[in-house]
Every structure is written in structure tokens, then in C-alpha cells.
């Protein structure tokens, strides 16, 4: 019997990955079933889909971002909403994020490998921008009610330059846009020292300082 | 020379249509050029693209929805933001809308043939819902800060059931989602009377009443 | 053992949904296996895929629409052919329908959220048309051997205006185009009465009449 | 002025090619404009698009295949319907073909590089089949009212084995599926003789015979 | 218990097929798990996916084509690299092949139904070409360091015309491009004799000879 | 007449951008026409498409990377091959690059927003790797004949750690994958100083040093 369980775990692992694409949907929706959601394996937590007749209105409504999330050292609190926390968007090709910035808080340079972002300033004054493939920066302060677009896969960033907290609502055209935050992706991931020294023109000592700063073990 | 102009108009007409798809982009962005935007023809107003070195930060920022638009008889004011008014999103596969609803105002049943919608209630209490392919309705009142998803191509609707005006920010995973508003698409478009009578079980007189109500000539 | 069965049901539920997309295929074909097809669960009937070496010629041929299906009150008999009944088209991005119309029979206004339709009149005279996003109707009678296209996601309709039964063959560029029939989606789904009254300009009594007419419990 | 014309021709040539893709549409439809259709250049005949307000019902209806086309030596008459002859399907991701086969007539082995085909036998008895990537053939005789699917990019073929003419309606999930007919693509295209001898195990003389048989200059 | 196993096998069969598409990825990667890889069934060998935290560097590196593979009678040795042998490319939309050709060796006319090929001559002189939809051949000898492109779905071929062995590296924009080799697909698959005689203008005896030459039972 | 020219330039600018997508092709190929290629405008150099009957074999063969390109200060010489230099790949969804690395030369951390890369080491020993969305690095030295895959949109890097020059052939599943080189995108693009100080934990002086180092005006 235990080998059978093992095989099932394998299936679960596979299924999770199979759900990893943003093609045109071929059904109305596909809601992962929270009842079965507590199936924990050494590898994955699985959220199988509901039968459509068991779908409820609440499956299509997300109520978990009425207030700001927890703030990091950078002064940013981000609530990323993907199918894991909002079942109703599964397979529909969209997701979103609420980001709150303390006064002076930043959203460091990062990019989303799989989506364009529409960034709507719900409250506050936010220096916002992105860099294109020719290393040109497009950035300025935008105010409440304004919207900036960050084209797919390009590095972008934000900073609250107002005198009050800021709130941003960002939406994506992928259910899992992914994210690479440059400082930690570069200096906190373990890329070869010599290569980083040459790439950034930094001394071994400087690279060491950067490494310690972005060491994932020392970060929350 | 005039035949030459004619040919150019033909080209313009074609170009407009050629821009009508949401594939993966193969460049960072493509901003229609507002300088040349005033090229009006009998057929089209054309907005050719800028050279990327002439793109400016403002091309990627939309400031035209800080306040509500003009309200219709239904008590709704919608500002649809597509590449015509926000050049920076051209070819990036997304667009968005600001909708304000007076107390009791409605967004009548409609659907977007080419996009899923993420609907974020920025202010107010809004009865929101959609109907799936099996004619089940998923609807309830959602409050400020809540989000509802309307799967691609399914009929949905909204009504301000609160005591104050409501504001909604909707985003789409197409640069041109399209929209068919059911009452006017069915009764204001000129579909054969007999067919409508049979489809809805209405008398010729009742159909006539509906026709006059949704006659496009008598609507703003 | 029973918990094991439960887990399997979960897997089945998930698998069904995972098959819900129309991307480019990455294999020749994928035929659901009718041998295992009788696996009925409380949630789904599952048709797992055959090994390609077990595929047979008959898997790629559909013989179930040589004659008309059962007629509804509207005078239409539709046989929708999707991967559930025709395994061979699974993952190939197409499906089709045979619709027969009695004299005077109608196919009421409806749309397919996920496909364009090519409608080929095999027999008879059929008033056919669709409505575009600007509420213009494109409709006229077409005869045997003529073809009309209904663009993706737009409302369309048909009525047999000839003196003999009519037969139509419609093909779709999705294996599951979906369908929303306007009268029942709007009046038979349970959308809030007040919203419908405002949207259509009907009295509460009139809405009540429409509701009873399209009550799913009283329909076949 | 003549250099200006040259530039326009260049534009036309480019535009034709730009229309060469099957992505999701981002508008309702895009009808090439037959009024301007007579623009003939040394390179192309251009059919620019209509303004949507000038589209007519007839643009969406194809009436040119009520009767069979002209028969070739192989006993087949095919009418391929693409946006050039049926403007309304432009950008909608579908096209179709009517093929008539004389008694004993064949549709030689061929494949469509860019589409799956749904083949509906409207009349007659047709031996139909395809070959998969492992060189297995799936073929048998299908009768009036039956449908066979030919998966995208796989070699398929048909032969009228009945005692009466046969008519087939094939639909594709691309507006331009393309076609390579094996005998002429291999022996009528000018592939190096030595390579063909080795590939098929034929003598130089036999290859010469095949070449003459499928020489494009001697074929209609 | 044994029926349970049967059901699991069915699931495995389905899972394999579910992985058969090249949409945009919605995760960084999805590596089939070699630990569980030895799950052999009567139908399939299954390679479930790893948890991303268990992915290793070696999963993303392929070392199995440092030397040529085994040569066939045609003088070609091809190592096709797809997710089965190189787990790291699973879901990423690419795959590749190393082909070595003896002096005079050929890669017979074939096509890939689901991919364009970029063919890079790493060593040697190779006559290379393809045929387009109008039966035009594009072919000539290319040398070390040159690259030829074979558009998706079009018949192409290669022959080593140099005095030394040749090595080619081909890459594809699908994780499973598929392949149909014309001689064996046509003459070794069991297509009806009469149809082949008519299609190629060959006698029954000649067809018989071709059949025996490409009989899959007599080939390795 | 001059205003006419202006309009044409506008058209050219638009056309360039219209070619910016990687959907499924709907024709065999589309070769920009080098004859007209010398049309230089203040904005663009335009390469309109050839009529398919004018395509030549050479259009589909690239001969410009038989030897290494020019080396930068980092010890890398990259020849990026896209439709501008290799017309034949236009619209086919692939492109490629030859990169040569001096002993100790590096390809600094960068990513391609629109493509996965298959990286084939043709010669030498190359430390190669990428970072995933969780900041894990996957890297080691790979040798001649080995292949590494860099998933779409993820930061990757290379360094020649051998004792001889190295040559790499990289292929992409987009005709224009784009590239952002981290050091210059971050420090050479003009992102706000305060934001960079906070993001990287650097002093204003250190940021100033980095800026000067990656100032685009001082780089080749």
C-alpha cells in the first residue's frame, strides 16, 4: 500500500506542474478545490479542481487584500494574488498584486519573466519607472489615479516620494508572472565571485559585502 | 496626386487592422506616434508608431481617469482605456477601464469576446456577478478592496447597491477586449422580429417596445 | 482504502480540467481511452488517454451524426461533437456541430466564448446572422452550399425560413468552444431582478414572466 | 513620382506578408476591401481592409462552392476558400475547402503545415486516412455524414471508392493552412537526384521518369 | 487492489499526453523527476516532475551528444534531444538534435509538423534544402559555421557532399517537433496500393518493390 | 510632395513595429527584401518583404558567423542573428547568436525577456548558469559538445574558465528575444540614485562610481 501512496505523490507532483501554462482556456473556469487542499506531501501542497457544479460565488471573489500586508526592511508590503490564494483565476491568464509603500519605501528593481504589468496608483505619489532593452530609463512621479505600464520582462521599480503611505494595484496578463528581484538574484544567489567582480567592476571585498547583505539566510 | 492619396488611405485602413492581435510581443513596446495622430481619413484616424528612441516616459503613463467620466441613463460612467487613448500599452496584451456607478446605477449584462476581466472595487458596495455556460449565476455584493474575476467571454453585470457612489477598476488580458451589451445587441441591432419573438416568447408588440427602447438613433 | 479512492477522485477531477486548453499540440494526437471511459465518479466521467500504439482508425472517425438529433421546442436539433463523444479530436483545437431546423425552427441568439464558427448549410434555406461590437447586425437568408462565418465571441442566430427541414454543419477552432444562449443565460440564471428591470426597462411583473419562461427546472 | 510608386509597391508587398498569422484576433473582424482589390502590382494583388462601418452582410457569406470546381487528372476538384476569395474570414483563424472526387478519383498524399482538418463527407463513399509520426496508417472507407479528423501536419489522403461522385467539406483551424502534395513536392521540385536515389532506393533512370511525370512545366 | 493499479496506469497514460503542448510557460521550469522515472507500465514510462527545490544544475545540462550516435543504412546518426532524455527543457518550448553524416550520407526528405528548425553546420560540407508550398526547392551546399533555416512544416533534406564526416546541430521551437520521413511514411505505412499507384503513377509491381524496401519489419 | 514623404516615413515606422510578434506563422516564410533595404529614414532602416517567387536559396542561409566577432572589454564577442541580418528567419519564431569568449572572458548576468535559450558549447570550457525566481543559482562548468538551457526570462551568465578561447552557439524561440544586461541596465540607465542606494545598500559615492563605470557615453 505504501508504494501506492508513493505513486500518488508522484502524480501530485506532476499535476502541479502540468497546471503551469497560460494558453487560451478551453472551459469557462477551473477552480482548485480547497476541500482537498490540505493534501500535503513531502514535495507539494495540492489543490485539485472542483467540479463546476460545486463552484461557489466566493471562489471568484478575493477578499484578502483589503488592508496592507507586512512591511519588509525596504518599506514595502506586497500581497501577490495567484491561483494558490485566489482559486477562481486559475487557467484564466491573469493575476494581480497589492503593494503598499511606507514614506520613502521602495520596490527594488525587478522584472516579471512572464507578464506585462498595469500598475494603478490607488493612493499616494510614487516614483515609477522601467528600463528598456537599450538601457533607457522611463521614470517619473505618478499620482493617485494614474496608471503606468511595465512591458513584459523589463526591469522596473517604484519609490514612495510622497508624505503619506502609498497603495498600488498591479495586474498581470499571466496567472503566474514570476519575479526576479535584481539585488538578491545577483548578489544573494551564489553566482561565481570572479564573474561578478568582472561584470560589475567590484573588488572581491566589495562583492563579499554585497553577498552578506543579500545572503538569503540572513533575510526574512 | 489624388490617386496617390487614395492609395495611402487604403494603406492606413489596412494598417489599423493589422494591429489587431494579442500575440506575444517581439519587441519591448510599440507606441503609436501622437505627432502623426491627427491624420484623419474618411475611414480611420491613424496613430502610426514612434521610433523607440523617441518614446517618452509620458507615453507609458495614463492620467486620463483621475476623475469619473460622463454618466449615462443607467447611472454608469465608463472610461475604457485602450491603445487609442493610452499609446504605451499597444502590443502589450493588456488594457483597462474605470467605471463609476451612481447609487443604484447599473452596468447592464454584457461580455468581452476577447478577454478575462479582473474587477477591483476601489470604492463602494457593488453587486457583481457573471453567468457560466450552464446558465448558473455567480453573484453577490462585494466591498471596497475586494476583487472579482469575470472569465473570458462570459456574461457579467454590476449594480451599486451602496449608499454612496462606487468606483471600479477593471483590467483585461487583451489590448482590445471588445464588448457586447446584451440589451442593445439583441433589441437594438435589427435582428429579425420573428426570430426574437420565438427566442424570447414575446409578442410582436412587446418586441416593438423593446426595439424602440434600444433604438441606437434615440440613444446617446 | 476509501481515502485512497477519494484521492483518486481528486486526481480525476483535476485531470479533467487540465485537459482544458487549445494550445498548439506537442504530439500527433491524444485519444481519450473509451475502455476506461466508464469510470464514473460523483464528480466526473473520466476518459483517460490511449497509448498511441493502441489508437485505432475508428478513434479518428465520427459516425454519430448521420441523422438529425432530438428536436427542442424551438424546432432545433443540435448534435455537439467534442472530445467527449469524438475522442480523436482531443488536443487538436477543433470541434463541430450538426444542427437541424424544422420549418420555422430557430437557433436563438447565442455566442461561443472561445471560437469562431464556420457554418455550412448542407440543406435548406436559413436566415443567418450575427451582431458586432457596435450593435450592427449582419444577416440574410443563405441557401444550400453557402457558408457564413460567425467571428469569435459575437452573438449569432439562425432560423429556417424555407419550406423544408434544414441541415447545418458548423465547425469551430476550439475543441470546446462553449456556448451562452442569451434568453436562458439572462432570464433563466437568477440575475438580480432589479438589475434586469433597469437593464431591459421591464416591469417586475414582466421580469417575473420571463423568469418563469426560462426557469431551468421547467425546461428539458 | 515613379520612385514614390515603387515605395508604395514595397509597402504593399510587406503588408501582404504582415497579414500572415493566426494569433487570437483583437477586433471583431477585418475584411479586405474588394473596392481597392484591383490594385495590381508586379508582385502582388492587394486587398486592403474595409472600415468596419462599410462591412456588409455579404462579406461574411461565401457562395462560390455551390457546385464542384474543375477536375484534375487525378479526378479531384478542389475549391480552397481562404481570405483571398472569402474576405470575411480574414484574421479569424479558420478556412475551408470543398473537394469533389470522381468515381475512383484520388486526393494524393499531402499535408497542411499549419492546421488540423475536420473532413466531413457530404456525399459518397471515401477511403480516407492519415499516417502518424511512427508511420502507422489510420484509414478506412467513410460514408455520407461521417467525419474524419486529420491532425495538424500529418500526411493524409482520400479516394472515392463508391459508385457515384463524392463531395467532401474540409475545415481548418488556420486562415492559411498551406499544403504540400508529396508526389510533386518530392519529384517535381528539383531536389538533388543523388539524394532522391538514396532516399527512395531508385535508379537514376527511375528518378528521371518520376521527374518528368511531376515536372511542373508539364502540369496544369 | 489490482483494479486500483489499473486506474493508476490509466492516469499515467493520460498524464503523459497532458504534457503535450508548447504554450507560454507559467513557471520557471518543470523537470520530470528521474527518481520516479523507472515507473514502467504496459503503456508508458513515466517521468513525473521534481519539486523545484530538488532541481539540480545537472537537470539543465545535456551531456549525451558529445560524440556521434549510431549510423543507419542511409549514413546518418541522429541524436534527438527532447524532454525524455533532457528533463530540463520540459515545458520550455525548445528541443534540439545532433546529426552526423558519413561521406555521402543523407538525411532523407522529411518534415517536422510542429516546429521551425535552425540547422547549424558544426563540421563539414552539407547539401541542404527545403521545398515550399509551391513546390519550389531552396537548396545548396553549406559549409562549417553556416546556418540554414527550415520553416515549420516544410519538407527538407541534407546530404554530406564533402570528403569528411559532417556534424549538424539543429534546434527547434517546440519541445516535441515530431517528424515524418517521406519514404517510409508513404511506402512503409500501409496506404492503399491503388491510391499510391494513382498518386505516383507507378505500377502495382513498382509499388510492391517500394513497400518491401520500406517495410517497417525489415528495418531497424 | 514633402508631406507625402513624411506620411510614408510614418508608414515605415509603423510597419517595422507591426512585424514585432511571434505568433504561429500563416504562410511558409516572409523574407524582407534587401533590394529595398537601403531605404533609410530619420527613424528607421526598412527591409520590406520579397514576393515569395523572388525568394532565393541564399535568403535562408546565414554565412556571417563563420568567425568570431569583435571582442568587448569583458572578453566577449557576440554576433546576434535576427531578421535584420538574416532575412529568412523573419516570422518563423526563432533566432540565434554566436558568442566567443577569450580566456577569462565573461558574458555578464543578463536575461532575454521573450525567449528560452538553448546554449551549445561548440568549443572550450565554459562556466554557465542561471538564477531562478527563488534566487537559487544553477551553474557549473560545461565542456565542448554539452548543452545548457536557460529558461525564458531568467538571469543567466557565462565565463570562459578554460585555457583556450571558447565558442558558444545559442538559439532562441523568438525572432527577437531581447536582452537586458544587468550591470548597465541598473547602473547605466539613469534610475534614481536614492532608489538604487536603498535597493543595493550602497552609499551615494559608491553609486556614483557605478554610474561612471556603466555610463553609456563612455562605453563602446
From TrEMBL, chains A, B, C, D, E, F:
Entry binding sites for oxalate: 107, 112, 117
Keywords, in A-Z order: Apoplast, Disulfide bond, Glycoprotein, Manganese, Metal-binding, Secreted, Signal
Cupin type-1 domain location: 63-208
Family annotation (Gene3D superfamilies): Jelly Rolls
Record-annotated disulphide pairs: 30-49
Gene Ontology terms: cellular component: apoplast; plasmodesma
PROSITE patterns reported for this sequence: GERMIN
UniProt binding sites for Mn(2+): 110, 112, 117, 156
Compartments reported by the entry: Secreted, Extracellular space, Apoplast
Gene Ontology molecular function terms on file: manganese ion binding
GO biological process: plasmodesmata-mediated intercellular transport; regulation of root development
Segment forming the signal sequence: 1-20
Domain of life of the organism encoding this protein: Eukaryota
Family under the similarity heading: Belongs to the germin family.
UniProt-recorded name of the protein: Germin-like protein
Organism expressing this protein natively: Malus domestica
